From TrEMBL:
Biased composition regions of type Low complexity, renumbered to the chain: 531-546
Pfam families: PepSY_TM
Membrane-traversing stretches: 12-36, 148-173, 194-215, 361-383, 404-425, 437-457, 469-491
InterPro entries with a match to the protein in the record: PepSY-ass_TM
Region called Disordered, residue ranges: 526-546
Keyword Transmembrane helix: yes
Protein name in UniProt: PepSY domain-containing protein
Keywords: Membrane, Transmembrane, Transmembrane helix
Length: 546
């Protein structure tokens, strides 16, 4: 710790940023990619277009009623004793109607044509976590509760780093317009400052809202004091917080057989009550006197972009035998309590659930710049120490610096390799491989670990160049891989009107070009310097770290 307030803040900013920066790069990059989790999932599932498979026999509401009737007949034949039946209605043209039911300890899937109700072939896409993988890694690191708490700790450290960075900044407005390329350490500092100033409001918002939406987990003591420590405490807290309408009484299976009312009229009634299109229908206790039908609405963020930030989805619960309404959760903001609106706004801000696609692109670019800010900060530490060692660790300083350099390579370039390799695993793993979604995640984690081993074995600059070039090549070749494995590519998707899947490959190409430029620039800098940099021995006491 240094003497003086500003020097202490500079010390705190340096070491807090370095120790958390390695993990922050991965958390921020995966969080940035998860902004487009739906398009990524759609690309990775690789489901065939329904229109290409069969021509619809009917149109409009009558066709949907017919398809729902077919769905109920199929579910009654396949799973009469299931705990629930779930019907996922098509979200976009070309999507199939998806049926899910739980029998025993496993879920089962089937797909129907949304207009004819015909059962589609079993090959309806690849089993994958898709974009949810990036979102789950973003807040859990795929490590359960330890990962959850580690992400919370790193997020708090990032808040400290942002605040201490503002304190040590003397020229925050001037730094926004300052970048001096080709100046070595000064260029890295300019890039770190410029990206930090540009993204500061976004980063403060995204970190604060990320901690806020999990406040009952990170700070559970107030809730425990008011609601106790029983398993039902959280549910009672949420019910009071959200001012929910009274839940239908618990309706256990009676063993008395009963017929399900037609779902088509219930669907239309629910859409009228909610003012939203339906997304999912769930039949609980199917075939029993106590059947319940829940209709959950779909939020169209693009059409509601001008109506505010918080757009909750509503739901309606019906008695499955009589069709009587049991519960309504209105989506209207005016029907929500102040506490629910505050919580909903925080979630919408963090998950970019407002403003439609323009807002998601703004989040994506801001997230990339924020990741770049953290990456330049970690690299800046090594660049400065390689020019002039501060001898913080005595005789072990060169070894510690070498370990830091390897961590820098793996956390910046290695995580990029692992992310794009996740897409390759999706296309190269056998479609019928049991647990293939978990194998995709294992490939991601193993390749990230391999990048650390590679960075530790290779000279630092060569490791940077090789990993950046590998990530660039994988990004640029992704459309070719897709063509070879599925027969489709970005232009094909675009001609079908599927902008989401075509944009995945377009973004991959764009990122590939940026990574290739970074690899070329690093290679050129390495040649100019003559050899891989190594720490120079200290000749005098080091100045305060940035």
């Amino acid at each position: 710790m240094k003497n003086g307030f500003r020097q202490s803040m500079a010390w705190l900013h340096t070491w807090c940023g370095l120790l958390c920066g390695w993990l922050l790069c991965a958390i921020m990059l995966t969080g940035t990619l998860s902004v487009f989790r739906e398009p990524i999932t759609r690309w990775m599932q690789d489901r065939p277009s329904v229109e290409a498979a069969q021509a619809p026999a009917q149109d409009g509401l009558h066709a949907l009623d017919h398809a729902l009737g077919q769905a109920m007949r199929h579910l009654a034949e396949q799973a009469p004793q299931a705990r629930f039946w779930r019907i996922e209605l098509p979200a976009q043209p070309g999507d199939a109607m998806r049926l899910v039911w739980r029998s025993g300890s496993s879920n089962h899937l089937a797909s129907l044509h949304p207009a004819t109700g015909a059962l589609l072939p079993g090959d309806q896409g690849r089993t994958t976590e898709g974009g949810r993988h990036f979102m789950t890694f973003h807040y859990l690191l795929h490590a359960g509760m330890p990962g959850y708490w580690l992400v919370g700790w790193v997020s708090m450290c990032m808040l400290i780093g942002l605040v201490s960075g503002v304190v040590v900044h003397r020229r925050i407005f001037q730094d926004f317009f300052t970048f001096r390329p080709g100046k070595g350490q000064r260029s890295w500092l300019d890039a770190h400052n410029a990206t930090a100033v540009y993204t500061l409001p976004f980063l403060l918002m995204i970190v604060y809202t990320g901690l806020f939406i999990f406040y009952t987990s990170y700070m559970p003591w107030p809730m425990r004091a008011a609601y106790g420590t029983q398993a039902s405490a959280y549910q009672r807290f949420q019910a009071e917080l959200l001012h929910q309408a009274a839940e239908p009484a618990d309706r256990p299976r009676t063993g008395i057989a009963a017929n399900l009312v037609p779902l088509g009229p219930l669907l239309q009634q629910a859409q009228t009550l909610l003012g939203q299109p339906a997304r999912i229908m769930v039949v609980e206790q199917p075939g029993d006197l106590h059947m319940t039908v829940r209709v959950i609405g779909r939020v169209d963020e693009d059409s509601q972009a001008a109506q505010g930030i918080h757009h909750p989805a509503g739901s309606v619960a019906f008695d499955g035998v009589t069709g009587a309404v049991l519960q309504i959760q209105h989506p209207s903001q005016h029907a929500r309590s102040a506490t629910e609106q505050v919580h909903g706004v925080m979630e919408s801000l963090h998950y970019a659930r407002f403003g439609g696609w323009p807002m998601r692109w703004l989040y994506f670019f801001s997230g990339l710049l924020g990741t770049l800010m953290v990456a330049t900060g970690t690299v800046l530490f090594s660049v400065k120490r390689l020019q002039k060692s501060a001898q913080e660790f005595g005789q072990a300083t060169p070894a510690v610096y070498r370990a830091i350099e390897a961590m820098n390579v793996a956390s910046v370039a290695g995580i990029a390799v692992a992310c794009i390799a996740f897409f390759y695993a999706n296309r190269l793993l056998p479609v019928e491989l049991p647990g293939r979604a978990q194998w995709e995640i294992r490939c991601f984690l193993w390749l990230w670990l391999a990048s650390l081993v590679h960075a530790a074995l290779r000279p630092p600059r060569l490791a940077w160049v090789e990993q950046l070039a590998t990530a660039a090549a994988l990004c640029l070749l992704l459309p070719l891989l897709n063509l070879l494995t599925t027969g489709q590519f970005g232009l094909h998707y675009a001609l079908q009107g599927d902008g989401q899947r075509s944009s995945v490959e377009a973004v991959a190409i764009g990122l590939g070009l940026l990574l290739a430029a970074a690899a070329w620039r690093t290679q050129r800098s390495s040649r100019a310097s003559g050899s891989p940099l190594r720490p120079r021995p200290a000749t005098r006491t080091a100045s305060p770290a940035p």
